[in-house]
């Protein structure tokens, strides 16, 4: 059984190493990792993608992103080390901090670059399922090392695909547009960005209104067309 588990982990290492861009790491590689950990939800996020917390931010989001309220996030930020809730809290206490049933157990690990925490990966399980354990934590530590290394390499590579023009879109909307361009469904985008499918659909409605389009294909074509047009102008000017 242990041999099978080790082989599965090696397969994940190989999938990470072969990923051609960040979108591939978010989905489908992260989907494989989520399945490996028998997670209900999973996601890969960078610190610069976290939403700005202000008076209009829903209370549950403010609490989730608060280092004072969220001890799991605080542990990750302070130590740059993988953790699950039962490492730092007595059994059952996490559920009083986070009441969501599908976040009944949580495990997170760091993405590190040049000695700095730049992001993290997170997994949740339903409260009726078993908590994450020491073996999960050891495996996550290994995966975070491979992810950090691969992401560092990808971020210094030139972008192979045409870059879309996101002038009118927020950072989150730009992420969604990029995943739409990759052909992901709303459910897959939600899993990749660790948000609900409904949040993706509502964001797409706002994006359609901003861009005055009525479909995903039209949106991607318009964004790509703008970028192409701008590149042609730059070439002509040169």
Secondary structure: elements and pairs:
Elements: H1 2-18, H2 22-36, E1 41-46, H3 59-64, H4 71-79, E2 83-84, H5 85-88, H6 93-97, E3 105-113, E4 116-125, H7 134-154, H8 171-181, H9 186-193, H10 197-211, H11 216-237
Antiparallel strand pairs: 1-4, 2-3, 3-4
User: What order do the helices and strands follow?
Assistant: HHEHHEHHEEHHHHH
For the largest beta sheet, what order do the strands appear in spatially? Answer: 1-4-3-2
Helix count equals 11
Which fold name corresponds to the CATH topology of the largest domain? Beta-Lactamase
β-sheet strand percentage: 5-15%
- Class from helix and strand fractions: alpha+beta
Query: Low-confidence parts lasting 5 or more residues at pLDDT below 50?
Result: 158-162, 227-238
Give the N-to-C terminal Cα separation. Answer: 62 Å
Shape: globular
Structure description:
With 238 residues, this protein is of the alpha+beta class. It has two domains: 2-154, GAF domain (Beta-Lactamase, 2-Layer Sandwich); 171-237, Arc Repressor Mutant, subunit A (Orthogonal Bundle). 56% of the residues lie in helices and 11% in strands. The protein contains eleven helices and four strands. It has a four-stranded antiparallel β-sheet, with helices on both faces. 28% of the residues are buried.
Descriptive tags:
Arc Repressor Mutant, subunit A; 4-stranded antiparallel beta sheet; 11 helices; alpha+beta; Beta-Lactamase; 238 residues
Give a short overview.
Helix content is 56%, strand content 11%. By secondary structure, it is of the alpha+beta class.
